Amino acid sequence: MTQPKLMQGNEACAQGALAAGVRFFGGYPITPSTEIAEQLAEQLPKVGGTFIQMEDEIASMAVILGASLAGKKVLTATSGPGFSLKQELIGYAAIAEIPCVIANVQRVGPSTGQPTAPAQGDVMQARWGTHGDHPMIALSPWTVRESFDVAVKAVNYSERFRTPVIILLDEVVGHMREKVVLPTSDEIEIYPRRQPTKSKDEGYQPYAPEADLVPNPADFGTGHRIHVTGLVHDETGFPSGSAKITEECIKRLHEKINCAKDEITHYDEFFMEDAEIAVVTYGGTARTAYAAVEAARAQGKKVGMVRLMTIWPFADKIIKQTAAKCKGLLVPEMNYGQLVLEVERAAAGQSKIVSLPKYNTEIFTPAEIGNAIDQLLSEVAQ
Amino acid sequence: MKDYEEYFRNNRLPHIWCPGCGNGIIMKSIAKAIANLDLDQDKTVIVSGIGCSSRASGYMDFDTLHTAHGRAIPFATGVKLANPELTVIVITGDGDCTAIGGNHFIHGARRNIDLTVVLFNNNIYGMTGGQASPLTPTSKKATTAPYGTVDRPFDPCDLAQSAGATYIARGTAFHAAQLPDLIAKGINNKGFSLVEAITPCPISYGRRNKLGDSPAMLKLLSEQAVPKTAYSKLSVEQRAGKFPIGVLYEAQFGEYTEEYSHVIERAEGGLK
What we know:
The complex is a heterodimer. Chain A has helices at residues 9-19, 34-43, 57-69, 80-96, 123-128, 144-161, 171-175, 243-258, 261-264, 283-298, 316-325, 339-347, 366-381; strands at 5-8, 22-27, 50-53, 73-78, 100-108, 114-118, 137-139, 164-170, 177-180, 227-229, 267-270, 277-281, 303-308, 310-312, 328-333, 352-357. Chain A is α/β, with parallel strands linked by helices. In chain A, strands 2, 3, 4, 5, 6, 7, 8 and 14 form an eight-stranded mixed beta sheet that branches. In chain A, strands 11-13-12-15-16 form a five-stranded mixed beta sheet, with helices on both faces. In chain A, strands 1-9 form a two-stranded antiparallel sheet. In chain A, helix 1 (9-19) packs across helix 2 (34-43), helix 1 (9-19) runs parallel beside helix 6 and helix 11 crosses helix 12 (339-347). Chain B has a single domain (4-268), classed as Thiamin diphosphate (ThDP)-binding fold, Pyr/PP domains (Rossmann fold), CATH 3.40.50. In chain B, strands 2-1-3-4-6-5-8-7 form an eight-stranded mixed beta sheet, with helices on both faces. Chains A and B meet through helix 3, helix 4 and strand 10 of A and strand 2, helix 3, helix 5 and helix 11 of B. Strand 10 (227-229) of chain A pairs parallel with strand 2 (63-66) of chain B, so a sheet runs across the interface.
């Protein structure tokens, strides 16, 4: 353990990335994410790393992909408008299997929206923002300390699965200051850059999957002379127009994440033992939800809470189980109702699902969620 | 020294370019430049965008990166900055570099990062079938300009110069003997280098503009291109329809990765 510090979520995110081995950041200024860039502009060169401010959001995404291929662990940070601009290259990273982490500190949209009031409106964009079929990992912290932990996990997952990973911060957690005690470096597990397990003479193919379905394309400059493309490609890395290769390529991209889904699905349960209803929540909203649930419990109401850290892939299993044992699920979100659609899908009619959307720049109050809890309790009691 | 042919992935050839296309001449010139400089094949990276020219990366036996449309320069910036010991060459086209990638082009030049950009200029979007690009001359026809373009074209060399590039050259597919040398000088320049290589596209540009077949288009290039020194002596009237070739501009400024290495030294030493 280290000494306690007063720290912002954005700052903890930057520190977590550094601790996980990020040594290259490319970015473009945008509120409310800019502190991540500012932190790293100062700290990366101190550890021999590189910070570059690019000419736009797209270039920021491109530059980290180039740096990742040259062997560095990489991060960029942005908010809604920039996240939209980055989408094409997030898809590039998915198909070319380039490890990278994108921190999106969400604000009210669409477009310039309400800068820079808090929102959770990019939940579906994180999943489906880039075109075509692709897997996605997105993690959303609810405390400053967890912003650190999520950054470490994001970097590790990006390296392990060779896929883009999105940190879905929101303005609440990103700008909030809390007392945190960060782990020391020997308390942090780091997943190293994957390396080829075969030589050229042994038939090395840069995009041939290992047993975990993830390939090991060699870093540039290591003598393997590989080809990387955003076109559908076979195990050699070169483009193929074949229907069979296309199917295999797209399928493997999904399966490499699907087969590890349980391991990367993180969540907390509170007061769930005898809960009649549950609040399903994430990010900054979960803080208010916790206060409301705690207050309801103090009044003897049988309400629990499931807090999702992993947003994508969606935590189907735990939501299905929760729906089976609860009569109602309440989903408060700082958006028009996004993740509630996934909750409905996973619950599959086993439970009454209530959306509690809020999209007016203001965060939830405990009373608002408390009232919705009372309402749902009375509805399921009938 | 290796023969330039050893720099090709022969199992990926023949290329997909149309009969009469000049891209092969430019690709060969890049390979020859690399051979002449005797670069380490394992420490040379070719980065391309999207379009006809950008398919060249797949044919060349280096670490190669075929990026997204317009984004070759910022990808290449990441490769170079992450590992400055690599020699990074960018292959791009007129649409890729000066339209969708225009912002990256000027900012790459502004940073003077050590990249050599070889701009295959065929005056048209070839891969999508002949639409006007920012380098299509005014009044020339394209599928998206059936009555002739009203747009004025960029001069990419002037653009790069005003943006801060430190080596700028122009050649053509006709002047095939000169091109490897122009590219080699660009690779040797420690900074942002642009080599504009003008090349005929008889199928998607020449045919619609009645410029004849590939030999006729190459002949036209030979008439239009004037060595820089001779060009500088021409009057404004005499310059009409002509353009200078050769090394057009050279300057000395700090190179980005080197400058950033000083930032690291200062930061590691606790200085600001």
